Automatic annotation (TrEMBL):
Full protein name: Alkylphosphonate utilization protein
NCBIfam families given in the database record: phnA
Protein YjdM N-terminal domain boundaries: 3-32
Family classification: Belongs to the YjdM family.
PANTHER family, alphabetized: PROTEIN YJDM, PROTEIN YJDM-RELATED
Domain Protein YjdM C-terminal: start-end pairs: 45-110
Residue ranges crossing the lipid bilayer per the database entry: none
Domain of life of the native organism: Bacteria
UniProt organism field: Sutcliffiella rhizosphaerae
């Protein structure tokens, strides 16, 4: 049987493994194993496979309906200074005339 690490918060030896993390029943602390910390950052790519970075300028490649509105973000709309985030939408940005938006990388191309 493999030995489990002590809790980094309270040093309790009564830790257990729950899926991909460790849990301490005494203090409630949860943490991932040391092996999981070496996971690489996610690489964001546009519709053409170009790597995107924070601050890039992109163009929308197809008309996108705006949820909760009758507006449409038209194809060819330029979006400046994007911010990449993890989640179901990869890009946080502000589009002139629309305000703050979230976009998926599959609907943009890098300029």
């Amino acid at each position: 049987m493999a030995t489990l690490p002590n809790c980094p918060a309270c040093q309790s030896e009564y830790t257990y493994e729950d899926r991909n993390q460790f849990v301490c029943p005494e203090c409630g602390n949860e943490w991932t194993s040391a092996d999981d910390t070496e996971v690489e950052d996610k690489v964001f790519k546009d519709a053409n496979g170009n790597i995107l970075n924070d601050g890039d300028t992109v163009t929308v490649i197809k008309d996108l309906k705006v949820k909760g509105s009758s507006s449409v973000v038209k194809q060819g709309t330029k979006v400046k200074n994007i911010r990449l985030v993890d989640g179901d939408h990869d890009i946080d940005c502000k589009i002139e005339g629309f305000g703050a938006m979230q976009l998926k990388t599959e609907f943009v191309k890098k300029l």
